Amino acid sequence: MKKDLGVLLAAAFLLSGCQSGMGSVSLDKGLLKSSARPQVRAKGISYSLYYGSNHTHTAAGGDDGKLSLEEAFSYARDKGKFDFFATTPHSHMITPDGYQTLRQTAQKFNQDGKFVSLVGQEWGSLSRGGHINIFEANQLCQVTSGDWNTFYKQWLPAHNEVSWVALNHPKLNDFAQSLINPQKDAVASKFSTIATIGSRSDYEGEDGNAPISEKAQTYDYFLNLGFKVGSLGETDNHRANWGTSSPVSTGVWSRQLSKSEIVKAIQARRTFSTQVKGLKIWFTLNSNEMGSEGSSPRAMNFTVAFSDPSKQTTNLYLYGDLDGPGGAQATTIAQRPVKDGQAEWNYSYNASKSGKMYFYLRAVSGDGVMAFSSPIWVDVK
Ligand SMILES: [Zn+2]
Ligand SMILES: [Zn+2]
Questions:
Q1: Using CA atoms, how far apart are residues 150 and 179, in angstroms rounded to an integer?
Q2: Please, is 234 exposed, middle or buried when counting C-beta atoms within 10 Å of its C-beta (0-12, 13-18, 19+)?
Q3: Ligand with smallest separation from the Cα of 64
Q4: 238 and 128 in one domain?
Q5: Are 231 and 288 found together in one domain?
Q6: Where a domain ends, among 274, 296, 325?
Q7: Residue 239 half-sphere exposure, CB side, CA atoms within 13 Å?
Q8: Contacts (Cβ under 8 Å, ≥6 apart) of 275
Q9: Residues 6+ apart with CB under 8 A from 34
């Protein structure tokens, strides 16, 4: 008999509650059963699941995609069925006035409860440190592309309003040349997301999207450098078919569908990347939810609720980096098969020592990764 995610989540969290003694991560069983959107609770707050796209291009303002911003937002909302959508024009292709016009246009499409529209800007140089998306800046970043010294030491500290920065289509050595010290610099905490799944079919431009194996490699690489980055799906769509040519998207657990809450949820990294429309992951470690930083005793209880409507996922892998940033990268801690696209998984693990660690989930089909959760970072005592 097929179970829905709500039932799985309910079972998972009841188990979690038993094991960790009224853990502060739980779920509202009733709401899950009656709601099309699954709902979870963590530390007294309820979150619902929303899907969106956070890296796209249009022709608006001189960017190198297609169609206008109005056409893009309408398409993404009505045909792509996204709950939230961000367009991220190349900063060097648009003007400061053009950027302000884009922000105003986006605001007209924002309808709390129905659709969240965002404008970011894609800054950087592929040959000098890589591309990033900067969100919620009140000005266009006019720092020369690739001049990380000015960007990182002057521009970013002067723009506290920036809500988050995404590492785009990452390659090994990207951002490493860019002076960012994720373990020491306060401003580095702005770099809070990384693209872990991309879509070649959506891309039409100069940088392309790395194959999934490379994305997995870069995820582990940047986490091990000490970046506390959550997982995003990235289409980098330049083809005016936002949400219809590729199922790649980002799942976000948010208090509600409003611009401020979606932004907060992404800042908190309650996110996962997915290759499948409607795929769902919720992942906790003791009382710590997906994306969070906390502490844990050596006896750890992991709880996973997973649903893949395409039923392609064959296995879940729990990845962990037991010596934290530096040293070895994350490796497989445990795995379990997925049957019929559904899984609930409670896994106990006893760390042999204390220290800083992080853990995340991969959903896998054959050689391909279907989804990556954001990590949970814990200080194990
Ligand atoms: Zn790019
Ligand atoms: Zn792009």
A1: 10
A2: buried
A3: 2
A4: yes
A5: no
A6: 274
A7: 17
A8: 197, 233, 247, 248, 368, 369, 370, 371
A9: none
Same-domain status, 146 and 217: yes
331 plus 185 within the same structural domain: no
What spacing in Å lies between the alpha carbon of 169 and ligand 1's midpoint?
Answer: 7
Q: Is the pLDDT of residue 14 over 90?
A: no
pLDDT at 12: 43
Which ligand sits nearest to residue 86's alpha carbon? 2
Q: 79 alpha carbon to ligand 1 midpoint, in Å?
A: 24
CA 218 / ligand 2 centre spacing (Å) = 18
**121 and 254 within one domain:** yes
Closest CA to 197 of 53, 95, 308, 378: 53
Ligand 2 centroid – CA 377 distance (Å)? 29
Measured in Å, residue 32 CA sits from the centre of ligand 1 at: 38
The candidate with the shortest Cα–Cα distance to 164, out of 139, 193, 194, is 193
Mean pLDDT of 225-244: 93
**What's the pLDDT score for residue 179?**
84
Give dist(CA 222, CA 199) in Å, integer: 20
Are 17 and 78 found together in one domain?
Answer: no
- Find the domain containing 200 and state its range: 50-274
**Closest ligand (CA of 171):** 1
Phi, psi for residue 118 in degrees, rounded to 5: -130, 150
pLDDT of residue 365: 92
Euclidean distance between CA atoms 114 and 261, whole angstroms:
13
How many domains does the chain contain in total? 2
Q: 299 alpha carbon to ligand 2 midpoint, in Å?
A: 42
Spacing, Cα 265 to ligand 2 middle (Å):
22
Ligand lying closest to the C-alpha of residue 88 = 2
Q: Are residues 67 and 37 in the same domain?
A: no
- CATH number, domain with residue 317: 2.60.40.10
Sole residue written with tokens 């001189």: 62
